Amino acid sequence: SPTSGPPAIDSGLETYLQHVKDMKSVFPSQSKRTWQVVGAMGRALSRPSNIITQPAVLLVASVPGTHDTARCIALHAAQGFDRQPTVVQGESLKGLDADEAKKHLDEVLHAGFSQG
Fold it and tell me: Do the Cβ atoms of 86 and 112 come closer than 8 Å?
């Protein structure tokens, strides 16, 4: 007879959740809420590769004075999926008009996605 219990966890998700657990020791002062959000992002992005139709995007915002930490956490979280993720710093778009910002963003993303 079939056993009931929690659904099986995808090995990619399991790997990512272990990555998040390891991150907690690197960033011990972060709140429980931070880790809930980072973990939820992993669950949302951890789909079987045969149904992924577009790149994953992780957008991180932070309050003034915490940008460096947020950047570091975002990079570590992204590395749970890709050891060399394409990263766009919002500050690189500051001061550009909308068309210039879109062009810059398109160029950075195209270069990143072209590398695999």
Answer: yes
pLDDT tens, N- to C-terminus, the chain (116 residues): 455 544 445 677 788 888 889 999 999 999 999 888 888 877 777 666 555 566 777 788 888 899 899 999 989 988 887 888 888 888 888 899 999 999 998 898 888 877 76
Rounded CA separation 58/18 (Å):
18
Distance CA 48, CA 11 (A): 10
Q: How far apart (Å, rounded) are the C-alpha atoms in residues 8 and 72?
A: 31
The predicted model scores a pTM of 0.69
Q: Cα(89)–Cα(27) distance, rounded to whole angstroms?
A: 21
- Residue 113, class by beta-carbon neighbours within 10 Å (0-12 exposed, 13-18 middle, 19+ buried)? exposed
Closest CA to 38 of 64, 62, 19, 51: 19
